[in-house]
Design a protein that fits this description.
Layout (H helix, E strand, L loop, with lengths): L1 E5 L2 E6 L2 E6 L4 E4 L7 H4 L1 E7 L4 E6 L15 E2 L3 E4 L8 H5 L6 E4 L8 E4 L11 H5 L5 E3 L3
Antiparallel strand pairs: 1-2, 2-3, 3-4, 5-6, 6-7, 7-8, 8-11, 9-10
């Protein structure tokens, strides 16, 4: 069994199974990753005001999204997609982004973390994939249009 730690979040490999442990909440996630087909298989359920354009919010269906202040947040973004239900707010994507696409947004009552890295300047993404490569739970997906 191998393990890695980033800002209090532990990623453990048990054979081929990836297990994430967040000690502050005691939550466990198994083999998690953003759904790579979310733009084809999920519905657009809401938008959030970005700095220069709205951020699309996607969910499996309307019942899978309840908004900020709940534990049903869905996937936010189109070019830079972040699965807010998986994001553990370790800040790796914020630190890795060379053009400062991300900033923090409070998400009280979320099971994974009480804040998320929102792609507030999504249209400024240069498709370098730095954020995607450092996310410990694979909650980030860059999609070229």
């Amino acid at each position: 069994m191998n393990s890695e730690s980033s800002k209090g979040v532990y990623l453990i490999w048990a054979g081929m199974q990836k297990i994430l442990i967040t000690p502050l909440t005691g939550n466990l996630w198994y083999n998690m990753a953003i759904d790579e087909d979310y733009q084809e298989t999920f519905e657009k359920v809401d938008t959030y005001d970005g700095e220069s354009q709205p951020i699309q919010i996607w969910a499996k269906d309307q019942d899978s999204y309840s908004g900020i202040g709940t534990d049903k947040l869905g996937i936010w973004g189109t070019i830079v997609g972040v699965d807010f239900d998986l994001c553990v707010a370790d800040g790796a994507c914020i630190d890795a982004c060379p053009v400062e696409v991300f900033e923090w947004i409070d998400t009280p009552n979320s099971t994974a973390s009480d804040k998320k890295a929102i792609m507030i300047r999504e249209d400024e993404c240069i498709i370098c994939r730095a954020c995607e490569s450092v996310c410990p739970v694979e909650a980030v997906l860059i999609t070229e249009d």
